Amino acid sequence: MNRLPSPHRPRALAPIPHVAGVDYDVLDELIGYTLRRAQVAMFLAFHEATRGLEITPPRFTALVIVGANPGIGQSALGQVLGIARSGAMMLTDWMEQRGLAERHQRPGDRRAWGVYLTARGEREVARMKRRVLAEDRRRSAKLGAGERRRLLALLKKLAG
Amino acid sequence: MNRLPSPHRPRALAPIPHVAGVDYDVLDELIGYTLRRAQVAMFLAFHEATRGLEITPPRFTALVIVGANPGIGQSALGQVLGIARSGAMMLTDWMEQRGLAERHQRPGDRRAWGVYLTARGEREVARMKRRVLAEDRRRSAKLGAGERRRLLALLKKLAG
DNA sequence: GCCGATTGTTATAGACCATTACAATTCTCC
DNA sequence: GGAGAATTGTAATGGTCTATAACAATCGGC
User: How close is the nearest chain B Cα to the Cα of A72, in Å?
Assistant: First the structure.
């Protein structure tokens, strides 16, 4: 089996299969279940693209958001990620320890810190974005370009 | 905030929002990210449908699979769910403790047990299925019937 | 009949994340 | 202008989920 260097192991190393001879009953009519199977499949694409990088989807998302919104506060970061403030803080700690981001005082407010990518962070995030996007496209190449666009639109409509 | 009776708490109580004024950069072009947002949204539908039932998506899936495939072994169950055998066993323990399923010897093989729904399990699972399906449809009603079908097809094609 | 594979099981450990509480600071509004 | 409410980041704690590893019993192929 495909072992990983213990920390930062993904939850699933293999896609959720559709086992032959098994009756899936109502599951195949549920958007929720089908969504999850597709998500696991695409998670593998992400894992492939970031192999050896000690990164996870939340970390990647945090890096991209900080890169595109320099000086964002940790509460706002948590809100965007859909996690609690304490979780956003741990992500920020991680980014800082890796030298990818820094906290800087913000002039207006002495409570809020404001997170910024470092120069090295900018470089690495740009590289990651290229790789993740390429792999996401490659893995979803089972769909044609039109289908891919339509899927994105449907998903966004669903997520509101 | 919306508190729940400590055990069996869902991971996310609120949808992942699209915060106004925030630049999402490449995220909005990633199937993986968009998929996750949609999945969280639909998870809330599930949570709504099973409120007060001490159930989770893996538990529900296990119950449905056992119901539709009586006598399935725990290894096969784990494979269908995409989890390790040990996890399938704990799910089976849970179903048994709740009186929803039972392990029975299977004639051919004295290693494998074979899981079956109890009469009460049959009843409860039927009820759950109705509720979950109804809520899944309700929550995805933002899409028209045709869009919903197309989304299902695209997701299945993606998950392979 | 023996060796490898498979099944269920148990124990352990780690990742992830929410909750709670706290101090510092800012905001509200009278 | 001042008191109380709200917000920010932080730290400590705990719970849930699930994989990993090791084990005994059993089966299958040769």
Answer: 9
